[in-house]
Amino acid sequence: MYVVSINADKCEGCGDCIDACPAGILGMIDGKAQVTGAETDCMGCETCVVTCPNEACSLQEL
Ligand code: SF4
Ligand code: SF4
What we know:
Pfam families: Fer4_10. The structure is a single chain. About 15% of the residues lie in helices and about 30% in strands. By secondary structure, it is α+β, with helices and mostly antiparallel strands. The strands form two sheets. A two-stranded antiparallel sheet has the order 1-4. It has a two-stranded antiparallel ribbon with strand order 2-3.
């Protein structure tokens, strides 16, 4: 499975990763993007990683 992490210190809350995630598992909490859906639905597409202008998203395969 894939685990996506969002560095809150780097996230500026633009929302681009939320709009881009095809699995719809990212959401905004207190101005920061977070995994708000089922983490197991992440398909490891790296769309959030390449979309983020601040390199806040990272992906790990377990
Ligand atoms: S890797 Fe793809 S499916 Fe997983 S959180 Fe990022 S955009 Fe969504
Ligand atoms: S694309 Fe990056 S800066 Fe924008 S909300 Fe997502 S993690 Fe935050």
